[in-house]
Amino acid sequence: MIQELVLNIPFPSRINVDIDGIRQRTLAWLRACGLMKSDAAVKRYLDMDITGLGARWYPDATGEELDIAVLSVCIATFLDDQFDGVLANQTDEVAKVIQDLIRLMQPGDPVLHFPDSPLVQTYAAYFSRNRAGATPSWYTRHCLSWENYLKAMVVEVEHNRTTAVFENLEDFLVLRRETGFMRIAIDMLERTGHYELSPELLSIDTLQEMITLTCDIIDAANDIHSLRKEEIRNDTLHNIVACLQQLHHCSQTAALEITLQLIDNWSTRFQSLAQETPVLSQILHLSEKETRDLQLYITGLSTLMSGYYLWGRATKKYHEDNIIPPGQHGFTESYL
């Protein structure tokens, strides 16, 4: 089974002790927003164990910050599900949904294309909760991550419609880093950890490379785990294994080997950069608090990688007997 492949993601992993509580609270909130109206949808959601992924990503988070961080993963899953269904090739309709969601990030009463949509209303409630407890500087940056993620979805749907192919791996990775949701998940490390890195520190080349490596490792691992699902749904265009197979004119087995080697190289590079951070703190003359926050952030990046890996191997989301045929919604119903 492809989910059981051993990947070189050698970072420690823990799980939040409130996993059962967050699972119950998240389910209740999503249902109150009008999602998961059927028992079948609830079962599929629980089988995926999306809250388990959030509990591994943010093992020390508590309270409202934990709930918001896990909800962000859940609502992104619902959105992706809708675009994998009947909207898979409808660029104009997807663009309208994305416009609505971007408008909802800021306070006010925006004009929406789908004001009665349960999914749009869920995002409105989520952004209101997220904004309430955030610093303006963090929230502004976080909204940019959401906006890039959402706009990249439109590009992905347009690629699906035109069956465009990538000319090289870097072009693929540039788009995959945005559609993979990881920039949003990385932002949440600060929110859940009650700290905030300065723009100057975040812009340092070493840290930017570590962020990029984190995105690439998790996205590639996810592409391996979801490969069978995407083959069955005729949706392999944005999968790194399929991309490498096309670029190298090789077999899928060979492309998988290349992907495994890339993950190995990226993990080794991340570990090397992490070992340099004490020297980096000295060179930059960071304060004691800045040094502590930087270390928390880097530890958080490694926790995201290991947390995804363990969840990805166990979730039923990618089991072949759980895969929904092309053109159907994963949760059995439309939320738009």
TrEMBL record:
Task: Provide the family line.
Answer: Belongs to the terpene synthase family.
Question: What Enzyme Commission number(s) apply to this enzyme?
Answer: 4.2.3.-
Q: Does the keyword ATP-binding apply?
A: no
Organism, as annotated: Chitinophaga nivalis
Which keywords annotate this record? Lyase, Magnesium, Metal-binding
Q: Which SUPFAM superfamilies match?
A: Terpenoid synthases
Q: Cofactor(s) for this protein?
A: Mg(2+)
Q: Which domain of life is it from?
A: Bacteria
Mind telling me which residue stretches traverse the membrane in this protein?
none
Among PANTHER family, the record links this protein to: BETA-PINACENE SYNTHASE-RELATED, TERPENE SYNTHASE
Name this polypeptide is given: Terpene synthase
